[in-house]
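Q&A FORM
Asked by: J.P.
Topic: structure of Amidohydrolase-related domain-containing protein

PROVIDED:
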Amino acid sequence: MNIATATATTEAPSCAGPDRTLRSPRFAMPRGAVDTHAHVFGPRARFDFSPERSYTPEDCTVAQYSALLAQLGIDRCVIVQGGAHGTDNCVTLDAIAELGPRARGVAVIRPGLASSELQALYDGGMRGCRISSVVRGGARFEHLEALDAEVAPLGWHLLLHLHQSHELADLLPRLLALDCDLVIDHLGHVLGNEGLDSPGFAALLRLLETGRCWVKLASLYRSSQQPYPHEDMLPMVHAVARAYPDRLLWGSNWPHPIYRGPMPHDADLVDLIPLWVPDPAVQQRMLVDNPAHLYGFGPLS
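REPLIED BY: S.T.
REPLY: Here is the structure written out as C-alpha cells.
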C-alpha cells in the first residue's frame, strides 16, 4: 500500500525506532565525511507531529543523532525534514542550529512562501526542498514546477522521494525542463529485481547524464529482495559509481522510519561502503567532495 494514499486517522500508525546500540564500523570514514540523509523527530513535547502525517515515529532527537555520528566517525550531516513533521520545519532548523556549521538541511515546503520566509530557511541552513509520493503532509509532484521556480533563485536543489521507480520515468520530461538541480533519493527506489534494464534506472541515468542531478546511495535495504549485504543492488550501484563518480552521495537514513523489515544497524550500513564503492578515490568523492560542493560546506576546521 502506498502510504501517501492511506486513509488519515486521528493518530497515524506507529513505526519502529532505530537500533539504538552504538558500535563502531570496520570501515573508517575519511575526514570530512558527510551523512547526506538523516531525520530528526521530536522530542514531541517540543515539536509536535503534523496531523496530516502518514506515520508516528519514536522521538529520535538531535542529541541521539549527534552521538551516532561520533560513533560512526562522520564529521558532517544533512538533516532532511521528516514526513511526520510535515511542513513545520522548526525541528530541522533547531537540529541544524544545535549541530552548528557541520550541518545543513533539506526543507519540506509547499509553494507560496514569501521570499523572506524562503530566505529565513536558507539562513537557517536549508539547501533544498523535498517532494514525495511516499508520505502525506508535504509537497507532492503536482507542486514540482511551482517549487522549482520559487527556490531556484536560492540555488536550492529539489530532492525527489519516489514510491516506485517507474515514477522517475513518468516524470522525466518534466524533470529535464526544470531549472533547479535534482537529487534522487534512495537510488530512485529501483528494486533489486528490476535491475539495470528497468525504465526507472534508465531514467536515472538520463538525469545523471545532464550534469545537474545527484543520486543518494541510502536506504537500499528497502529496495533489496535479499538480506544484508543486499547484493542484488550491486549491479545498479556499481553502474552509477563507475559512470558518474562525481554525482554520488551517501546517507544513513537514520532513524529508518516506516521500515518494516529487520532494523538495520548503522555501523553495518557504513560497512557496505567499500562493497558498493571499492575505489578509495571514489569513496572520497562520494563521502566528502561531492556533498561539500552540493551543500556548500567550507574547509573543515
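FOLLOW-UP: The chain is about 30% helix and 15% strand.
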